[in-house]
Amino acid sequence: MRNAMLICGFLALVALPVDGDERLRMTVSPTQSFAPSFLRVRVRIEPSVENRSLEVIADSGGFYRSSEVQLEGDRAPAAINLEFRNLPEGDYQVVGILKDRAGHERSMVNQEVRVIGTGIGG
Predict the structure, then answer these.
(1) Domain count, the chain
(2) Separate counts of helices (H) and strands (E) for the chain
(3) What pLDDT is recorded for position 9?
(4) Domain range enclosing 54
(5) How much is the pTM?
């Protein structure tokens, strides 16, 4: 967990803007919601024979969830839709990482999301 927080902190410092890399673009909605939250993540991927997997991470430091999708290079879909359900309160870094067949990062995008506590049942 500690390593994941360090990695996400580092990624937040060096990440490109959401629309900064043509190989990978990501939209997360809503960007602000009440807990427990349901996030929709849409990732657009430029087709390439090098594309082998897409990992999407939602990390608040106190809660971590990830999903990895295998890709078939230039035959993979141009858009991937994912959902993260029941996210508790927190400020999240949602990170999308496009990887090659060796597992090396080809491209990365990052977006911040805030999940607000309701104060009910506290």
Answers:
(1) 1
(2) 1, 8
(3) 47
(4) 2-116
(5) 0.79
